[in-house]
């Protein structure tokens, strides 16, 4: 490819007028440009950069921007410019900039020689970073929560179709009689959280749209009409996230995103205690909402009862946090994966199945199947779930470029994960809750003890993945559900065993230390078979956290030999 150049100019009428007349490529060539101030940035693409920059000068939202950079390459075409525009928007947001773009123009399409262009894009990024527009490296940005949880993601066709259908349904309901709730169903790595965040951002963008035309028409930009803007203007929208750690991470993303605020991201208790209803609540990880069960503290137990009495005049066991959400919102979008229930307090499977069935009957169920996380392909998640079920696969699969390793020596796996973290970042050890949390009371105590190795559980629950000590610790399901890693080193403890006599998986209650994970709800008596299902779900989640690879060590000898053949397609530990 030929070289590119980045032309820099002040963003004012005089400088733009002079620049526009200087070269024919300033008026008639596909380019990408950035407009920025100290903390804000806008990215665009145009065939007439000079004319487009003049238009931006007349727009109130961009009047505070002070300089422009125009990226010109002799080989650019419209498709490459759209791709670079999308790429830079995502990187700027991941670097902590206030990105003024809406997310309707973020596209992800194939085109001729895309991989060659992508190499050039990294060179362009390096040039912009050297010029002060970026602080972090691409690797640092892509490993950050701001990037992974950004609303400026390029949606897959499945995700985009779901977003359009949901918005159309919501608009119809707001203009007529309220319909039933919408459900998005999908396994790990299918991008449910991405869709939830993207949807909230797009609804806010449509509701605040000022009529400014889009530079590029996409299937999403067609949703921006005066009628839709009037319908969605001022809509009270909330994103409910049951898990504390993930909620804090998403709040940080919303705080740095124009049009969104951290207080839009809610716990179920925030919803229940509110005196005012929402127009729309989007619920991520709906399966982690609670039934009437013993909560994590006495205060939460009191609050649960108080909310039930306030809303339903009784504190009966039939009232759940999902009931709170339905009572306090006119519309709901529920994101569900029944097989990611990991505690008895989670909504029961039959209730979630009923929610999905009702949405299906109303044409409001959207299923996501395309694998966005794990590079082993769409079959990997189902493969892991089947391995950990009573009906395992008949033969191992080829993991392709996905780095799977089966370790007999835990010390070697720990070293391998630390090496991956040093090389690529975001490699962490994870384990089932098969060891007691001794270090919680005494930070000098070890928790997970092997003959030649001692490890500790996560020293914090919120933002553990990004904490400085996390590479030397072991994360539990409660720190990692909803997050992506580059590499996951998973320890399967003795809470899960294999019985060679009955040729079946068994739950070992004696070696399961999650007190809330085996606590009966009112009127409930959990059997070992019931708890086995939760433990299988937990390990399925842990084994699907790694984007680039999963390393595995199994404590129980019989289970180790049972699982070994299923990971034969990976590299030996």
Description:
There is one protein chain. By secondary structure, the chain is α/β, with parallel strands linked by helices. Helix content is 36%, strand content 18%. It contains 19 helices and 21 strands. The strands form five sheets. It has a six-stranded parallel sheet with strand order 8-7-9-10-6-11. The chain has a six-stranded parallel sheet with strand order 16-13-17-20-12-21. β2 and β3 form a beta hairpin. The longest helix has 19 residues. The chain is globular and about 80 Å long. 47% of the residues are buried. It comes from Nocardioides vastitatis. This is DNA/RNA helicase domain-containing protein. InterPro entries: P-loop_NTPase, SLFN_3-like_DNA/RNA_helicase.
Task: Provide a short characterization of the protein structure.
Pfam families: SLFN-g3_helicase (PF09848). Helix content is 36%, strand content 18%. With 573 residues, the chain is of the alpha/beta class.
What radius of gyration results from the CA coordinates?
25 Å
Strand order of the largest sheet: 8-7-9-10-6-11
End-to-end Cα distance: 41 Å
Shape: globular
Q: Helix/strand-derived class?
A: alpha/beta
> What assembly state would you assign to the polypeptide chains in this entry?
single chain
Give the strand content: 15-25%
Q: What's the tally of helices?
A: 19
Q: Got a strand count?
A: 21
Flag low-confidence runs.
none
Mean pLDDT: 93
Share in helix: 25-40%
Q: Main sheet?
A: 6 strands, parallel
């Amino acid at each position: 490819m030929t070289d590119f150049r980045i032309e820099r100019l002040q963003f004012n009428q005089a400088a733009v007028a002079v620049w526009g007349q200087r070269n024919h490529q300033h008026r008639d060539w596909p380019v990408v440009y950035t407009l920025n101030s100290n903390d804000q940035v806008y990215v665009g693409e145009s065939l007439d950069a000079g004319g487009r920059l003049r238009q931006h000068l007349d727009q109130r939202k961009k009047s505070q921007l002070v300089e422009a950079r125009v990226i010109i390459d002799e080989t650019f075409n419209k498709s490459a410019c759209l791709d670079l525009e999308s790429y830079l928007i995502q990187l700027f947001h991941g670097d902590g900039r206030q990105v003024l773009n809406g997310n309707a123009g973020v596209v992800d399409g194939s085109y001729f020689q895309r991989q060659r262009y992508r190499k050039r894009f990294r060179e362009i990024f390096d040039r912009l970073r050297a010029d002060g527009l970026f602080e972090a490296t691409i690797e640092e940005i892509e490993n950050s929560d701001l990037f992974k949880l950004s609303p400026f993601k390029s949606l897959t066709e499945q995700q985009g179709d779901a977003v359009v259908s949901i918005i159309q349904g919501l608009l119809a309901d707001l203009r007529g009689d309220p319909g039933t709730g919408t459900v998005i169903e999908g396994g790990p790595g299918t991008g449910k959280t991405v869709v939830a965040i993207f949807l909230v951002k797009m609804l806010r963008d449509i509701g605040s749209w000022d009529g400014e035309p889009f530079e590029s028409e996409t299937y999403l930009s067609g949703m921006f009409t005066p009628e839709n803007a009037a319908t969605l203007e001022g809509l009270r929208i909330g994103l409910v996230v049951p898990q504390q750690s993930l909620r804090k991470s998403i709040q940080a993303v919303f705080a740095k995103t124009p049009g969104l605020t951290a207080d839009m991201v809610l716990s179920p208790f925030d919803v229940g205690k509110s005196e005012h209803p929402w127009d729309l609540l989007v619920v991520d990880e709906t399966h982690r909402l609670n039934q009437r069960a013993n909560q994590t503290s006495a205060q939460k137990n009191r609050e649960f009862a108080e909310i039930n009495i306030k809303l339903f005049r009784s504190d009966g066991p039939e009232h759940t946090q999902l009931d709170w959400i339905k009572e306090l919102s006119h519309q709901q979008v529920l994101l569900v994966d029944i097989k990611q229930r990991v505690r008895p307090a989670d909504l029961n499977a039959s209730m979630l199945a009923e929610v999905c069935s009702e949405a299906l009957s109303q044409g409001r169920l959207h299923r996501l199947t395309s694998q966005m996380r794990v590079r082993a392909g769409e079959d990997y998640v189902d493969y892991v779930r089947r391995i950990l079920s009573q009906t395992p696969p008949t033969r191992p699969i080829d993991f392709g470029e996905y780095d799977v390793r089966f370790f007999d020596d835990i010390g070697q796996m720990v070293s391998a994960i630390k090496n991956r973290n040093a090389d690529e970042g975001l490699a962490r050890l994870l384990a089932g809750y098969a060891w007691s949390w001794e270090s919680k009371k005494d930070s000098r105590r070890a928790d997970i003890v092997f003959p030649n190795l001692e490890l500790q559980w996560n020293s914090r629950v919120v933002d553990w993945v990004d904490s400085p000590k996390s590479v030397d610790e072991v994360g539990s399901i409660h720190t990692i559900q909803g997050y992506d890693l580059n590499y996951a080193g998973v320890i399967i403890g003795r809470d899960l065993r294999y019985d060679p006599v009955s040729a079946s998986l068994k739950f070992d209650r004696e070696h399961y230390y999650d007190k809330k994970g085996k606590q009966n709800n009112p009127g409930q008596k959990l059997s070992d078979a019931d708890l086995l299902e939760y433990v299988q779900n937990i390990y399925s989640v842990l084994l699907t956290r790694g984007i680039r690879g999963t390393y595995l060590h199994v404590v129980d000898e019989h289970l180790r030999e049972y699982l070994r053949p299923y990971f034969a397609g990976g590299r030996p530990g």
